[in-house]
Amino acid sequence: MKRRDFLKRGAAGSVLVGAMATPAIAQSTPEVSWRMAASWPKNLEVTYGSANALCQRVAELTNGKFKIQVFAAGEIVGGLQVLDAVQSGSIEMGHTLSSFYIGKKPAYAFDTGMPFGLNCRQHNAWMYFGGGRELMDELFAKDGILVLTVGNVGVQMGGFYRKEIKTPEDIKGLKIRIGGFGGIVMSRMGAVPQQLPPGDIYASLERGTIDAAELIGPYDDEKLGLHKVAKYYYTPGWWEGSASVTAPVNLAKWKELPKSYQSALQVAANEQNLMMMARYDAGNADALKRMIAGGAEVKTFSREILDASYKATVAVMEEIAAKDADFKKVYDNWSAFLDNSNSWFRVAEGPLDTFRYYYAKK
Amino acid sequence: MKRRDFLKRGAAGSVLVGAMATPAIAQSTPEVSWRMAASWPKNLEVTYGSANALCQRVAELTNGKFKIQVFAAGEIVGGLQVLDAVQSGSIEMGHTLSSFYIGKKPAYAFDTGMPFGLNCRQHNAWMYFGGGRELMDELFAKDGILVLTVGNVGVQMGGFYRKEIKTPEDIKGLKIRIGGFGGIVMSRMGAVPQQLPPGDIYASLERGTIDAAELIGPYDDEKLGLHKVAKYYYTPGWWEGSASVTAPVNLAKWKELPKSYQSALQVAANEQNLMMMARYDAGNADALKRMIAGGAEVKTFSREILDASYKATVAVMEEIAAKDADFKKVYDNWSAFLDNSNSWFRVAEGPLDTFRYYYAKK
């Protein structure tokens, strides 16, 4: 926004305090107070902490003039109502996963990550330099929302299972706590996806009301202690090649911000996109070791299961694309990018990572 | 820095213009002009462009008050003299690779990346949440420098070769253009490392004065057209698990900055750390395809060569650690982090990436 435009809008902008009554230098740095509703409880300390760090950085960059207060899930808005609240303008912004809202629009899933999809680096490459940002801008603008990419959790674990899962047959009838696009694919494979709040999972697994539960990765999973009641901890969590966290912003409120505040919010979002992944990457290793010492048994999904899951994923995506124009538009761009990107990642990153991870020992 | 501290320092700070003569609001946002010397020519458009984007973001965040002007290699300082110029204070900051300066202190190499070392995500995890930042702060502060992490190029290619390299024997006597820590290891393996400016490589390979040349990755390598004179394009570039780009800042100049300007520079650095990698990740795939269409033949180093290179790398690192306390201090922390991190990355990221990169096809 040009400064002149800003001054013009300032008189009408509800967030601007005394814009016309103070000297020029203050007009470009008005006092602005926003509320951000997160989908996380405070004990998901990496995601919740990253939301806080984002707002703190924005305050620092604006000499305390642009204040954003973070609320945990349920404090002002339920964890799964964040996007709606941003759309209605009852809060200015949120901190959530777009995949929570695929019931509204399946194409939202691309903003988070798809089964067997882009890994964290590939997702960022697509989002910033491969057309993803423009597609998400267009998609969410239809609902009056702008989405900022504010983090990633990487490849998740495949969850906790009471019994070993060896072939696609073992998935049939499996009562598994799983949501999002992965839930749709698991359902197609014969599983019976369950919706359960995190606090109810332990008891349900212990009683056998459910057979399995998918969560996040070791750093967060460890807190629930599920390996005590379902010791098989499967990998990889193929439901997303990586899971990107999003901050939806009410588009009208965004447009009211001075350019330097938009810049502060954007750059702080980009910083947290880097930092959240780094913090999980630093914390997961030790958490997994502690879980293994506590009885978790790590198992890798068989090639047969991965093949069947991949096949089901592609079938589901193509079916949705055939009947949903929004989904198809993103899917065509995204899947071309994915294929092209894999053709490069398997040339340099793949071989060196493989040698380093598996073979090199002092 | 507290605002009161800043005002106290302001009177002495050479970069502060009229700090005591203007009203309070202006005192926290003085006009500051810095110069940044990059080690890159302008045609290395991703790295050079990222330096520019960093400075542009800082200007945006400070309403144009904190200006940093970027100079290409050779404009005010030679590409390999950037660190010295920052240390002496003749320029306020640079944009370079710390590994260019390992002749001065071998431990600087950890700031960039080591052979068979941390990949991009692992490097960020180590730097921000694994102790790397504190170790680099301590190491560089001895020379009056603060280093900001401002980018990464990921795993590089292994370079262009006139003849196939099949066993470690083929490396003996190989005249290869390579620098940094990888050059030391290649020398240990019997190669004869050569220093050559990029502009001279093509003719040297064509004439056979050198046998091979290592550069960066497809996006940058394509411009030199080396595959026309040395068609074997080897992978992976094991010289670094990833190569991180650094902006060294003169520590005294850094301390003179108001807190909000430090914050602006820090957050812009973090943003570019994300963006540079994303831009390379988005651009390398197509560049590689064009090179292959133009005659490049991609070859993967044999397991035998990787094993021998890995063994030589560990031997060299341990020898240096035995006689260099600065190196040892970083090496001990870094190698423990690397082992621990690999134990996690091979559980989830590794298996899913491997399935996706190599096996999954529609």
Structure description:
- 2 copies of one chain form a homodimer.
- Chain A has 362 residues and is an alpha/beta fold.
- The first copy, chain A, is built from 15 helices and 11 strands.
- In chain A, helix 7 packs antiparallel against helix 14, helix 10 packs across helix 12 and helix 13 (303-323) packs antiparallel against helix 14.
- Chains A and B meet through helix 3, helix 6, helix 12, helix 13 and helix 14 of A and helix 3, helix 6, helix 12, helix 13 and helix 14 of B.
Distance between the termini of chain A: 56 Å
Task: Sketch the major β-sheet of chain A.
Answer: 6 strands, mixed
CATH class label of the domain at 3-154 and 242-281 in chain A: Alpha Beta
The poorly predicted ranges of chain A are 1-26
CATH fold title of the domain at 3-154 and 242-281 in chain A:
D-Maltodextrin-Binding Protein, domain 2
At CATH level 2, the architecture of the domain at 3-154 and 242-281 in chain A is 3-Layer(aba) Sandwich
Most extensive contact: A-B, 81 and 83 residues
> Could you state the CATH homologous superfamily of the domain at 3-154 and 242-281 in chain A?
Bacterial extracellular solute-binding protein, family 7
Give the count of helical stretches of chain A: 15
Concise structural overview:
The first copy, chain A, has 362 residues and is of the alpha/beta class.
Question: Tags for this entry?
Answer:
homodimer, alpha/beta, 15 helices, 362 residues, disordered N terminus, 6-stranded mixed β-sheet, globular, D-Maltodextrin-Binding Protein, domain 2
